[in-house]
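[job 4417] fold queue: 2 targets
>>> target A
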Amino acid sequence: MIRKHLRLLTPLALLGLLVGLADLSHGSVGEDEDYYMQGLLTGEQYNQVQVLEKQNSFIPVGEENPKEHPAKKTAKAKSDSSKKTDKTPADAKTECPPIGLESLKIDDFQLHASSTKRYGLGAHRGRLNIQAGLYEDDLYEGAWCAGRDDTLQWFEVDARRLTKFTGVITQGRSSLWSSDWVTSYKVMFSNDSHTWITLNNGSEDLIFKGNREKEIPVRNIFPEPVVSRYIRINPRSWFTRGSICMRVEILGCPMPDPNNYYHRRNEVITTDDLDFRHHSYKEMRQLMKVVNEMCPNITRIYNIGKSQSGLKLYAIEISDNPGEHEVGEPEFRYTAGLHGNEVLGRELLLLLMQFMCLEYLSGNQRIRHLVEETRIHLLPSVNPDGYEKAFEVGSELIGWSLGRWSNDGIDIHHNFPDLNAILWAAEAKKWVPRKMFNHHVAIPDWYQSTNASVALETRALIAWMEKMPFVLGGNLQGGELVVTFPYDRTRSQGVVREQTPTPDDHIFRWLAFSYASTHRLMTDANRRVCHTQDFAKEDGTINGASWHTAAGSMNDFSYLHTNCFELSMYVGCDKFPHESDLPEEWENNRESLLVFMEQVHRGIKGVVKDLQGRGIANAIISVEGINHDIRTAADGDYWRLLNPGEYRVTARAEGYSLVSKKCEVGYEMGATRCDFTIGRTNMSRIKEIMEKFKKQPIKLPMRQLAARGSRRRRLGT
């Protein structure tokens, strides 16, 4: 409901009434040169910038948050509802969460500005942490930039309901080539967008300190909360060699209003009674222990190694026989937190393990079937060192990159050996399959040396991937809404983007679509673009190399070095959402997480045995028409992901005759059984006998016996 009079919480603020800014003239659109832009800071840049502290010392007072999400039942969750934006105890009591510019809860039609330099720098681009495109196209640039550089410019947000505003967070423009940011600003409020009041201290307007560079967010908390519908930011000064450009987030609590149409239309409520909050490393470990104690018969906690700072990389196994590989049962993995600042995936896996435990105990048949037929591994924090850096600063203040890398400055997701180049070079020389296999490509010696720039976390992942016979995996990342599949590196040299499919492109596309299509937002054609690319047009999926090339990715390594088909799920536009957004993010991803796990049972499976019924390890399974093979596990069992259809499958092993048969994959869920029994070749038997007699001629013992008999006859014995 729109009200004509402004309600402020203190009489001091009423003294600062200013009228007339509503009639500000709009500046003409300037003609600026186009730039190539890139959003990410490098590790070196970030190390050179000290994280800015809060720019004012006001301590807000006021009532408690009038809106508490129904899902946040526990006192602990309530008490922590806003700790991630600051560690100050006084602030934690009253500060409201972000209203949703970064998370896209605020749509483009709610953002306005006095003027705009051009469309790509319009008000709709003035969102915290929004990233500019690599290529200038005047559509997706990295901030709102005013058409003129003067103190009459403003950036406005319409909350569409009365909101208790408590603070503002600002950044400069995301651009590789330009340096634009606002160094100070005023804040104004209105209930009708015509009459505006400037926040003041009773005697003069408050001027808040802004940014000192373009990437690190700076937060200002108001001396006291202000209730209104509209809020404006009025830049007063800016970088001398730049222009007025801003990225913004507003902190605010919506006031109760059951008749508000916009709120009811967009509200998402979960019924799952889970721990919806951000967890420190210690809290994560404790939560996993609680899940294990609740479901001791189906869970097991273990670690795969340590981080650079010595933190253990904990995983939880969910299976009806934890700690044991069962013949014929596929193994699945989810990993998260390869980039420590991409926190949503980490929390989703912590929620998933809670959910599966509770649903298993309550008798949910879908979950029980998944647990009993699959060995599931969840590794929620691959980069705990990076996460701790991001967690310490807070969800709204980490910017785009703080905590992304490992402690020694390595991007773990792209730290694997580049096996693509090795395989493609061998194919060009026609060495495949005579001198080299089309699968299980060996890791080069240089990579395994102690001097190689390989993170401890990466080495731990590789050892884990080689030990477990994983069939399917997903790594949860953030900052976008899309599922990517291999290859992640372009085949053509020097090409940044190029469709580079694997021999299993069809099944990879299905696997990606299975997650994206069951996500609440990924395939929504009406949703707003996160940053620069509309992935909804591609059904929420994309070949990794056609997005941006990246050598040495976890996905490509998994496919080329192991049997596991690995994909990346970018599960949200906001890398580190406020914990008040976690219930909705869980609802967005819950069904997708389950559906993708179920895909491990698609295709064919079986056991390769010898004539005595013993399983043959390391046997090769080939599918006609697909130039990529897989191998059997230690017990001779295998799983081959395939789309529905009829396939000619061949099993072979060193020393055994190959056997081929037709295997049909149906549309119903559940892998088709396709077993093989193979016998030894004559040559392998001969070699075995020769080895038994230490490679001596097979008839030598008989000749020796004849010679001995002849000597005895001559001697008359």
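>>> target B
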Amino acid sequence: MRRDVRILLVGDEGVGKSTIVTSLIKESFVPHVQHIVPEVTIPPEVTPENVTTYIVDSGAGPNDRLHLESEIRKAHVICVVYAIDNPNSFDRIPTYWLPHFRQLGVNVPVILVGNKIDLRGGEVTNEALEEEIIPIMTEFKEVETCVECSAKLPLNVSEVFYFAQKAVLHPTAPLYDSREHVLKPACIDALRRIFALCDANKDGILDAAELNEFQRKCFDAPLQAQELEGIKAMVQEHAEGGIRDEGLTEAGFLYLHTIFIQRGRLETTWTVLRKFGYAEDLRLTESFLLPKFEVPPDCSVELSPLGYQFFTEIFEIFDKDQDGALNGNELSELFSTSPGNPWAAQKFPDTTLSDDSGSVTLQGWLAQWSMTTLLDHRTTLAYLAYLGYPEEPRTAALQVTRPRKVDRRKGKVSRNVFLCYVCGAAGSGKTSLLRAFANKSFQPAYEPTSKMITVVNAVDIDGSEKYLVLQEFGSRYEAETLRNPKKTDIADVIVYVYDSSDTNSFSYISNLRQQYSLDHIPTLFVATKSDLDLAMQRHEVQPDVYCRRLGLQVPVAVSVKTGQTADVFHSICSIALNPWSAIPGGADRAMTAAAKLRMYVTVTAVLGGCTAGLIVLVRALLRPGSSGLGAWTTPWATWLVGHRR
């Protein structure tokens, strides 16, 4: 909601624009005022809506034209003033003033203000006023309302500016069709979504407890029993099907907001909409969907216990048949308050655990959200809003992990969700390995991977559940990923897959390792298709020797076809938890220059204290303007350690 309102008064000469402004400020009638009153600023603490209000007077003479047009373009709301004793000033509203605003390309709310009601002879009914105003409101939808006042008495002067403020802060146009006297489709959709989110037990009605929670969330106050009964009685009388089983139905909820708007209480409906994140265009705001959430470099994002609790509870609510899985219809209903299933393009639920009928299980559901949070936490944040995460701040459902480098330095990994890249030649069995991990059936027919495939499952490590995400890129995206340091730095493990029955398969991954700088990533080699005859690889050394030379365990032999996976996924998770155990060439290969410096200083100290030469060299390297740690190579360090004074 905006924090300031600019109100412009226009109208023919002599209708009393300047007098209205003066009467508001002086709280009394001033008979002689200047032609145009200077702009008035009203501080927020004085106004009911707690916004800064600017009131701008204008003239209608030929010399005022340029200034008037400039102010019309700057206004948030325009009050067109006419004089009750001057019918011509009223007639010019639809024939001159309103068309003039449109000609200038201005589309802001308009309030019609009938001044000098003290000069009217006799009483006028609301019906008579409506007969005059409704034809104008029908033709010009920007006209919000009409207020009659007297600057002389003064009477209803403050109401003029109150309604002007409301027209900006709580506009009618997005919510209500004044011609048809019905809620607009976008408003109906927003209110239906709010109703669905407030219907905690999904029984189609808001019971007393749910209405109280709705009242607390929106208005910070409980709903009194007498108020509740009054609402129910009114809805029961006027809205067919509005009450069922002593609860408020969706039809009743929509009826209430229609009545609020028709009775001029738009602030009630707008308060509800804004509490649920809607802007004036009745779309959820970006700040609501994506609140500020900083993720430092080298850190990842996981669901917190509160996040897992929310997704567990929402799963159980929508599992209507209580079979422990969400089928297609149940998922559609669950995502009805959102733009749709966020994983529709990923062949979900093939990406996670599902039962024999293809319904996603609770374990698969939590695993899928764990993967989504790791790979794109902004999607999780947005869907927490779409699905109605109940508490603020919503960021409490997520937690930021310790940096990977810190984990590796301490030798203890504190994270619970790990990312593993799966690379290998076409036809080596990568996709089959991923499908096996998600408990999907083996497919004998080979289909080349044309786009990235990602799957997730839980892995039990010493009684603790960890989530492992496996990604296969396909030949189209593999090079793009592996040459990008930002992408390789977020990988916890890289698995090289080769077909043990294909003589050329291992050469592909050997060349891959030479082409890209990947030795800082913990590594595992997997030999697939072990049910087939073992082939000698056309490579300078065989895979087992190759791995031993790198200080890695020999390739894990698996056969997805026969279901022999040798607990390879447990091995991957174990490596992620103990990354130093699987660095190609030993842990020293992944150490930074600073880490090597610390190691050499420690070694020297153990041998009997730092040498003078070492101290001098370190100071030289660290002094301002020096070439940095990269200039210190292992031979220098060895020479210094071996030559003590």
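[job 4417] complete. Note on B: Residues 592-597, 599-645 have pLDDT under 50 and may be disordered.
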